[in-house]
Write a structure and sequence with these properties.
alpha/beta; TIM Barrel
């Protein structure tokens, strides 16, 4: 079994106590689905996209980062940078990324925003990382949300076992589905993984008539080529989806890599112009697709 597909064991007697690892809960989100949303970010991702803006999501475990620029060299931590010393650091140079939460604990946090969901036709979005890396936990929190009439969205890279999608599908109102490349070799080069399961899972969801928004991250000089765009259009001609969202690379992630001690490969100075983004939008519109910049 591919270790990137690992799942938590299911405990039928203690579903509410099942633990998931969360690294952020973002309230009042306006770009992760309809209405006002609470976006829950789960740790763990099977891909290693070189432009990823959430490198803290790569590892499924709780991590500790160190920001050398903030350090006062007070030595309160005595050079030991871990969870226990993070709370003592007066400069907040040591940061803990992630916390374990039970299904019930997470639902309590989500339910705090119920009034906003009801007045805006919003809900909860599960993102990451890749939320399906914690598929059993995801299934249980989705069930809990649907039992309480909360609109649910999954923001996914699509790299997961098809059985994971089969389990959660009836509890998902909308998928935000990333599509980066069609060419498998190019996908491997820039994400370290094949896209075969990604394309197969998208076809599966399409055949199930699920509600899908395609998200196409525009990465300058990497996937904004005419060849890749035409291949994506050709593939999407066989897919049932509502719209495609063009997401422009912003380059704000570099400092996160430094704090995590990771090598950052992207040149953050390169950006797509508004003119080029509009050109790409018009290509998709001309192909007959509803196309939105952002979101």
């Amino acid at each position: 079994m591919d270790p990137r597909f690992c799942e938590q064991p299911e405990d039928d007697n203690k579903k509410g106590y099942m633990k998931g690892t969360i690294f952020n809960i973002q309230r009042f989100s306006l770009h992760d689905g309809p209405g006002i949303r609470t976006t829950v970010f789960l740790k763990g991702c099977p891909l290693r996209c070189i432009w990823c803006h959430n490198p803290e999501s790569f590892d499924k475990s709780i991590q500790v980062t160190f920001d050398k620029e903030k350090c006062l060299e007070c030595l309160i931590c005595k050079g030991v940078r871990d969870i226990s010393t993070a709370e003592k650091c007066p400069a907040n140079a040591i940061e803990v990324i992630g916390q374990d939460m039970s299904v019930d604990e997470l639902f309590t946090e989500i339910y705090k925003d119920m009034d906003y969901f009801e007045t805006s036709n919003g809900g909860v979005t599960f993102s990451g990382g890749e939320p399906l890396m914690q598929s059993e936990f995801l299934l249980e929190i989705l069930k809990k949300c649907k039992e309480n009439s909360i609109h649910t969205v999954i923001d996914t890279c699509g790299y997961a076992k098809i059985e994971s999608f089969e389990k959660i599908n009836e509890f998902v109102d909308l998928y935000l589905y990333d599509l980066k490349f069609i060419d498998n070799d190019i996908h491997k080069k820039h994400t370290s993984s094949s896209n075969e399961s990604i394309l197969a899972n998208l076809k599966y969801l399409s055949e199930k008539n699920t509600r899908i928004f395609i998200r196409f991250p525009l990465i300058p000089g990497i996937n904004d080529t005419e060849k890749n765009i035409s291949e994506i259009i050709e593939f999407l001609n066989g897919i049932n989806f509502e719209q495609i969202n063009l997401l422009s690379y912003h380059g704000y992630e570099k400092n996160k890599y430094i704090k995590l001690g990771l090598h950052h490969k992207m040149d953050t100075r390169i950006k797509l112009s508004d003119e080029r983004i509009n050109e790409i939008k018009n290509i998709f519109v001309s192909a007959g697709f509803k196309t939105v910049v952002g979101g």
